[in-house]
Write a structure and sequence with these properties.
Layout (H helix, E strand, L loop, with lengths): L1 H13 L3 E2 L5 E12 L3 E4 L10 E2 L4 E2 L1 E4 L3 E4 L21 E3 L6 E7 L3 E4 L13 E3 L4 E3 L1 E4 L3 E4 L7 E5 L18 H13 L11 E2 L1 H13 L3
Antiparallel strand pairs: 1-16, 2-3, 2-4, 2-14, 2-15, 3-6, 4-5, 6-7, 7-9, 8-9, 9-10, 10-13, 11-12, 13-14
């Protein structure tokens, strides 16, 4: 384990950044709905490109259709700092994604019902934060609408699923996608890393750097996602 830690630290200190495209997740058309008890169904797959909902590495973008309230804006896809929306005013708002645990935060905006707080589920009893769960390829938890109440992303049969538009693994620890976490995943990861391929961007910062090695081994040593 000490040798492994040394490898991670050395690589993180010496690897040069190379530009790479981010893996992008879109909504599964077969599973695109979330339920709100006061205003009905929200369709996360209701908008056509380029306004469709997309999940980048650290933020979301696009529009959700509420059957009784109209469009909900999750962000324009251009955070001012290039990483996450500031959510301090109406010019740089949207839903952010924690690259480590998938938890959602920030705000969506509805012209008809106001702000929807995607961190609100952490305040539920019991706490059930809205999150992008890559182990099951779907959204989970609850968001809070200031004028409509809870938005349920946690239903077992009607939910918002996500699919990738690349061949990157949904679970970074199982990098070779064989269903287990083994040494083969390390080899597969370093193959992509040395080639500068986007799937090796495991810390999801938009580049292939030593930080990706550290992020990969965090999930690998944990044996899961």
């Amino acid at each position: 384990m000490r040798l492994l830690s040394s490898i991670v630290l050395l690589a993180a200190a010496t690897a040069a950044a190379t530009s790479a495209a981010k893996a992008q997740l879109t909504v599964d058309p077969a599973n695109a709905f979330a339920w709100q008890e006061n205003v009905g169904w929200f369709n996360f797959g209701g908008a056509a490109s380029p306004n469709d909902v997309q999940f980048q590495s650290s933020f979301a973008q696009g529009f959700v259709w509420g059957e009784n309230i109209g469009w909900i804006n999750l962000g324009d896809g251009s955070p001012a700092n290039g990483f996450q929306y500031a959510n301090v005013n109406g010019t740089d708002f949207g839903v952010n994604i924690n690259p480590i645990n998938g938890n959602l935060a920030g705000y969506g905006w509805s012209e008809n019902t106001g702000w929807i707080n995607f961190a609100g589920g952490a305040l539920a009893t019991p706490a059930n934060p809205a999150r992008l769960d890559l182990s099951t390829s779907r959204l989970r938890g609850f968001a809070w609408g200031e004028n409509i109440g809870w938005l349920n992303l946690d239903n077992a049969t009607r939910f918002v699923g996500v699919i990738t538009n690349s061949n990157c693994p949904a679970c970074p620890a199982d990098f070779d996608q064989d269903g287990g976490v083994t040494g083969g995943d390390i080899a597969a990861f370093f193959t992509d890393f040395e080639a500068g391929l986007p799937c090796a961007d495991t810390d999801q910062d938009g580049g292939i750097t030593g930080g990706d090695i550290a992020a990969f081994f965090v999930v690998f040593e944990a044996g899961g996602c």
